[in-house]
Amino acid sequence: MHPLLLAALSLLPIVCVGVLLLGLQWPARRAMPICYLTAVMLAVLIWGIPSVQLAAATVKGLIIAGELLFIVFGAVLLLNTLEQSGGLASIRRSFHDISPDRRIQVIIIAWLFGSFIEGSSGFGTPAAVAVPLLVGLGFPPMAAVVAGLIIQSTPVSFGAAGTPVLVGIGQGLAADPAVMAYADQASAGNWYAFLAMIGWKTALVHAIAGMLIPLLVVSIMTRFFGKNRSLVEGLAVWPFALFAALAMTVPYFAVAWLLGPEFPSILGGLIGLAIVVPAAKHGFLVPKADAYWDFDVPENWDPLWIGQIKRSEAVWTTAPMGAMTAWLPYAMVAVLLVVTRLPLFRVEAWLRQAAIAFHDIFGTSISHDLRLLYLPGTVFIVVSLITFGTHRLSWPGYRRAWQRSLHTVAVASPALVFTVPMVQVFINSDGGSRGFEAMPLALAQGVELLVGEAWPLFAPLIGGLGAAVAGSNTISNMMFSLFQFHVGQRIGTDPTWIVALQAVGGAAGNMICVHNVVAASAVVGLLGREGAILRKTMIPFAYYVFFTGGLGYLIVWHF
Q: Which of 5, 311, 350, 386 has its CA 20 to 30 A from that of 498?
C-alpha cells in the first residue's frame, strides 16, 4: 500500500475524534465508542491485527483507564474534604489577600503552582490539583479546566522528574547503532550527558514559547468566560503575565542547562512562586483596585460552564480556619509528590516494586504494571485522611465527601473506558499480517514523504498528535524519537534538535488529549462538554506547535 494512503487511513481515528467531539460536539461518552470501533476496524481490516492482540490492547487500556479514575477520585476526594472542612473558604480569603483579580490568581495557581506539580508528579496531576482549587476559589468549572489544560505544555517535558526525556527519549533512542555512534561523538559515550543535551535544547525552545502561555491563559479566560467576552481585558495584564512567565522560564532553562532534565519544572515553578507571590502581594505590576477583573455573578454564567459539583459554603469546623492550616493539605501533596518521585529519597523504587504485573496479556507482547501506591491518587487519598483529622472534620461531613467523590468517578467512567482502549489499539497496531508499521509511525512517515526538508516545521506537530492520542509526552517520545532522529539525519540537520522539537510538541499535545480533557473535567463534574473545551485548547496548541516548528526551522537551517 502506498505510504500516503496508509498515512491517511492512520489518521481516521483522529479525524473521528475531531468530527464527533469538535465538529458535532458530542459528549465523549457517545463519541469515543465510535472512535474505538473505528480504530478496531482499521486494525483488523487494513493492518491485519489478530483478535487476541486487539483484546490485549483493550485490556491494557481498561487498566490504564482505571488508573486515571483512581487519580480523579483522589483529587476529587481532597477537594470535597477541604470543602466540607471549611479549608476552601480560608484558601479563598488568602488569595483575596494576594489579589482579588482573577487574572492574577489563575497565573499563580495554574502556571506557577501547576508547573511545580507537573515537575513533581506528571500523570496530568496539575489539572487534578489546580482545576478543583480554581473552582473552589469561584472560577467557572469550564474556565478552570481550560486553564489547567493550557499550562500542560511548557513544564510537561520535565514532568515527573524528567521522565519524558530520561525514559521517553532515552528508551526511544536506546540501542540504535546510528544513535549510539552519534552519542559517542557528541558526548564522549556518556548517555546521560547526551540526553541532558537534548534536554537543554528542549528547554530552550519551551522557554521561548512558554513566555506567552500565562498571557494566553488569561486572554482565553476573559475572551470566553468574561462578562464582556473581551480579549483586551486579558491582554491588559501583559506586564504581570510576562513577569510571571520569565520568573519561571529563566530558572527553568538555567536548571536544564546546569543540572539536567530532572529539575527544570520543579525548581522553575518553585522559584517562580517565590518571586511572583510576594511581588503580587506588594502590588508589583498588579492592576489597581479600580481595574480588578472578575467573572460575572454565577447566576449569569452560561449553563455550559457549570459542572455537577456545586460549591458549598457549608463548613463543619467550629471556628474560622487559619490560612496555614487550610493550605497544609496542598503543601503535603507537594512534599509527598517530590519525596515519592525523586530517586534521592529512595522511596520511588519501593513504590514501583509494589506492583500488580499484567505481563504478556493473552500471550502477546503487550504488558502493563499496575502501581497503585505510586499513582498520585494514593497521595491525594492519604492527604485527605490526614486532613480529616487535622481539620477536625465531622464524620457526616467526611462521609459526604466520599459519597460525592464516588459519584463523580462513576459518571466519568463511561467516557474513559472507551477512550483509553482506543488509544492502546492505535498504538499497538504493529505486527499484523500485512506487515505495516503501527498507525502512529505510518502517519508520521506519510507526513515526512510530503514535506521533505521542511520537516522541522512539522516535527512538533507529530509529537503533539502522538501525545494527544497516547495521553502522554513520555509515550509520544518513545514512539517517535528514533523516527525523528533518523529524519533529522536524512535531511542533513542536527538530529538532536529534531528530537528536541518532538519532545516540545509531545508536551503541547497534553492540551488536546481527550482522556486528559475527560479526567480534568471529571474532577469538577464537568462531563459531556469535552468538545467545547477542546475548541478552546486547540488555540494554544496550534500556537505552540507551529511557533516552535518555525523556531526549530530557523535553528536547524539558519542558526
A: 5
Nearest CA to 39 out of 24, 57, 25, 26 is that of: 57
Q: What is the pLDDT of residues 106-119, one digit of tens each?
A: 999 999 989 988 88
The SS3 assignment for 430 reads coil
Contact 153, 146 (CB under 8 A): no
The backbone torsions φ and ψ at residue 295, rounded to the nearest 5 degrees and listed phi first, read -75, 160
- The residue written with cell numbers 496531576 in the block is 125
**Rg of the chain in Å (alpha carbons):** 23
Mean pLDDT to the nearest integer, 277-306: 91
Q: How confident is the model at residue 4 (pLDDT cuts 50, 70, 90)?
A: very high
> What confidence tier does 314 reach under pLDDT thresholds 50, 70, 90?
very low
110, 216 contact by CB (below 8 A): no
3-class state of residue 368 by DSSP: strand
DSSP secondary structure, 89-134, as one string: HHHHHHHHHH---HHHHHIIIIIIIHHHHHHHH-TTHHHHHHHHHH
Give, for 369, the enclosing helix (H) or strand (E): strand 368-370
What is the number of other CB atoms lying within 10 angstroms of the CB of residue 267? Answer: 21
Centroid of chain to Cα 105 = 20
Indicate the helix (H) or strand (E) that contains 476. Answer: helix 473-490
| H runs (alpha helix) in 154-313 | 159-163, 170-173, 177-187, 191-210, 213-225, 231-235, 238-258, 264-281
What's this model's pTM, rounded to 2 decimal places? 0.85
Q: What is the DSSP string of 3-42?
A: HHHHHHHHTHHHHHHIIIIIIS---HHHHHHHHHHHHHHH
pLDDT tens-digit profile of 431-478? 888 999 889 889 889 998 999 899 999 999 999 998 988 878 888 998
